[in-house]
Amino acid sequence: xxxxxxxxxxxxxxxxxxxxxxxxxxxxxxxxxxxxxxxxxxxxxxxxxxxxxxxxxxxxxxxxxxxxxxxxxxxxxxxxxxxxxxxxxxxxxxxxxxxxxxxxxxxxxxxxxxxxxxxxxxxxxxxxxxxxxxxxxxxxxxxxxxxxxxxxxxxxxxxxxxxxxxxxxxxxxxxxxxxxxxxxxxxxxxxxxxxxxxxxxxxxxxxxxxxxxxxxxxxxxxxxxxxxxxxxxxxxxxxxxxxxxxxxxxxxxxxxxxxxxxxxxxxxxxxxxxxxxxxxxxxxxxxxxxxxxxxxxxxxxxxxxxxxxxxxxxxxxxxxxxxxxxxxxxxxxxxxxxxxxxxxxxxxxxxxxxxxxxxxxxxxxxxxxxxxxxxxxxxxxxxxxxxxxxxxxxxxxxxxxxxxxxxxxxxxxxxxxxxxxxxxxxxxxxxxxxxxxxxxxxxxxxxxxxxxxxxxxxxxxxxxxxxxxxxxxxxxxxxxxxxxxxxxxxxxxxxxxxxxxxxxxxxxx
Length: 509
Prior knowledge:
Structural class: mainly alpha
Radius of gyration: 22 Å
Largest sheet: none
Oligomer: single chain
Helix content: over 70%
Number of domains: 2
């Protein structure tokens, strides 16, 4: 029988793959109608704000602190106590976020100045970013509550509803982007306004959907209006503080890139964005899906005092992740320009934009194994009640990224920013690996499978390099399809011959 981790990863991975494919479609539409100019830069700054706080308030820090506490409460007490804990956390979450939205709406010009100081040189771009951010900011409490409800569903081994939320998000934003040509009376930098309103529509649809999912299962927490905080809630919030610091430190990497990129030439923010969106495809399908599946399982194992189960789950996750991520890195290094050109070089997004974005994509690809490992290994620390350790590692990442960005942006421009981010991710993953190995939460069982995976990826890389030379077609989209198809066939064929396919992918119920 396939392991519970394999099943959970399959459920989340399939839905995440659908959302990431739709995300690519969304970004292709963005590239066609917004390009990589001032309108795209302004919208991406506006979108960064709710996304950053969402990862702090729900998807990141709160989820990592809440799920272990929720699992421990169900293990030690009963579902009623766990539901009361969820109600307390939910109430505090909504109240704080609504207050935060009000403050940011008032102070938005100052906030945009801090996020993108380089926009001061282009007043139209700055004004558009402020207007767009005021529209997108109310998305924060919506998606934070959705992510919190998804965490409750995940804790009950229901992963599909939460994983489906990005699908709804991308459908709504694609619809908003398609309305851009119909939006008359807007200046060039204001053309992203329909997409900003579509973001609020997405939040509403996601909120209603998750509400119905939990209500039908009888798992929807009530709002607990009380000034007295229960001992379990106090314990959870104590874990949340260092977890929030760790999540904030991770977001600082992105903010550093945004601030410094705003000081480079117009388009740098967009080039980094499109490169990051391609790198996010394997990261989301593999790293985030495995991390989401691991957190409830590791939390239950730690609460029950089963370190062998923790070690087994991490080994299985790393083998699954390596099998899917290592070939992705090889392909991105060889095909960076064909990928960006085939996906985005249409309409307002020029071939020169594709060339610039491909430089950043190659840098992000180098750091992809580190990013994925961090997503896989972080849940082990949160499940063990050690968010403070994650915070210290994250702060180290930020320091490395800031120093690296300042050193590399001069000679390499926006690609130097991506390179510094990649290095910081690799070092953070290395630190986590060493700590978990010393604590006997990791073994050497996956080293031999990893060597086989590397060899299969090298074979695929050579095949792709040959295809880039010998393919007779000039159409970039057709060439990209052939690259993907040919590379996949070569890799999976080599993996089967070398016995590099993880057993969890071959088992059947």
